[in-house]
Specification:
By secondary structure, the protein is an alpha/beta fold. Among the domains are: 180 residues, no CATH class; 41 residues, no CATH class. The protein has 14 helices and 8 strands. β6 and β7 form a beta hairpin. The longest helix is centred in the C-terminal third of the chain and has 22 residues. The protein is globular. The two termini are 43 Å apart. The relative contact order is 0.14.
């Protein structure tokens, strides 16, 4: 989940390089890196990471995704269109990890009307998906701060569909870099939930939020590499503006190594000792993910999450390393299997890269406009909505129509969870409910 406060509507402009604005964009388009772009990004790993993202865009599907939009009539039409366009792009981009046939329910409303989510989204969620009454808590934040913006991607709804929400002040500027990344940030969480069988607990928080911030920013600036550079520099500088630890922007590599090592201690959420994820975890996690993408590529990063899903969960009940001596070694094994080096070897490398990126952002943020529209039109303003999704009608279990809730073939929340339907027992296997051996459904006549 992303929790942000929108900056004021005042725009600031700084001297920038001479640009040629993009005039037309089709789904799947991304601006190639020019020599001028590389000079701005400067670092070879940062350049390689952006190139890896652009390569994935060139391979993404153009099929229509199974997206259902729930729009508050009070929401600004421009914001509505942005959420819709960026949702479909994100779905197409991630189609190799989360099939586009799997339905996603997307709810959107202005910050001033959080009641829309309480009335329309909250009743569709499972008890686990609405854990802690998080929507009502966000509604209280919205009452106190009219500039509040962000989103939320809980576990699937009662029908097993993916779901997320988006909210923003109605006067949000289309060129706001933080807002431009948010829709894809939340969609990234949907993909993570798919890979992790709905259970984030095996992961480190810097992986969860870092990947969402990194991919979200790339997708939101897909038609301009200079817009990405502006987003990236601004993201790093948010540690000074929105974090409780602005001093981290002055840290040495050694201090960042210790920060990563300290984050290996993950407590059981049931103890109440785990607090909110701080801004610094989002930002430095994003730089860590940039390093992984730039050094090892998308396939390795995808395998990293898959390895954590299959190898870490059983060793880290509820994600707690405290009291589970095999938890940290399991995470290290999963990391090394995907990346080729241990976490202890990774930390010094990524720590040095973080220090370099902070130095870069300190300099480049002075010369790049904070308004992304300075560099190119917003991608969503140039792309078109896909036609409505048309599913292929296939009989399931000889034409049986399942009621809401667990059923064979539907996605499930947690690996090895169990459920019953019509006298038959099921187990959550690889993210889907499957009948146990010998079980037979006996639907009511």
């Amino acid at each position: 989940m992303k929790k942000l406060t929108a900056p004021g509507s005042k725009r600031y402009f700084f001297p920038i390089l001479l640009l040629t604005l993009t005039t037309s964009v089709t789904p799947g388009y991304a601006e190639p890196l020019t020599s001028a772009d590389k000079e701005v990004l400067r670092d070879s790993i940062a350049i390689s990471a952006r190139q890896d993202f652009l390569a994935q865009v060139s391979k993404m599907t153009t099929k229509t995704s199974n997206l259902v939009f729930h729009v508050d009539p009070l929401l600004n039409e421009t914001l509505t269109r942005q959420i819709e366009i960026d949702s479909q792009f994100s779905s197409d981009y991630f189609a190799n990890l989360r099939p586009i046939e799997e339905k996603v329910q997307i709810y959107m409303a202005p910050t001033s009307d959080f009641q829309y989510f309480i009335d329309n989204l909250e009743p569709t969620l499972t008890e686990q998906g609405n854990y802690g009454n998080w929507i009502k808590n966000k509604a209280n934040q919205a009452k106190q701060d009219p500039l509040f913006m962000g989103g939320g991607a809980p576990e699937h709804d009662k029908n097993g569909d993916g779901v997320f929400m988006m909210y923003s002040p109605n006067d949000m500027q289309p060129g706001n870099s933080a807002w431009s990344a948010l829709t894809s940030h939340e969609f990234t969480h949907l993909v993570q939930r798919k890979i992790m069988h709905q259970d984030f607990s095996p992961l480190y928080s810097w992986m969860v939020e870092g990947q969402a911030d990194y991919i979200g920013g790339n997708i939101g600036t897909r038609n301009s590499n200079l817009a990405f550079a502006s987003y990236w520099a601004g993201l790093i500088q948010t540690v000074a503006k929105n974090s409780n630890h602005p001093e981290m922007l002055s840290w040495s590599a050694t201090e960042f190594v210790k920060w990563f090592e300290d984050n290996e201690v993950t407590l059981d959420p049931s103890t109440g000792k785990v607090g909110d994820v701080g801004t610094e975890t989002y930002v430095f996690g994003a730089i860590a993910m940039q390093y992984l993408y730039g050094s090892y590529g998308s396939d390795a990063v995808n395998n990293l999450f898959k390895n954590f899903a299959s190898n870490v969960g059983p060793q880290c009940p509820r994600g707690a390393s405290e009291g589970n001596p095999n938890c940290t070694p399991a995470r290290n094994t999963a990391f090394k299997k995907a990346i080729g080096i241990s976490l202890s070897d990774f930390y010094p490398k990524v720590a040095s890269f973080i220090v370099q990126q902070i130095s870069w952002s300190n300099e480049i943020s002075k010369s790049l406009s904070s308004d992304l529209l300075t560099f190119a039109p917003s991608p969503f303003s140039l792309e078109q909505l896909q036609p409505p999704y048309k599913g292929v009608s296939k009989p399931v279990n000889k034409g049986i129509t399942f009621p809401p809730g667990p059923a064979p073939g539907k996605t499930c929340p947690k690996l090895k969870a169990t459920a019953k339907l019509w006298g038959a027992k099921m187990t959550c296997t690889n993210g889907l409910w499957k009948l146990n051996p010998g079980q037979v459904l006996h639907p009511p006549k």
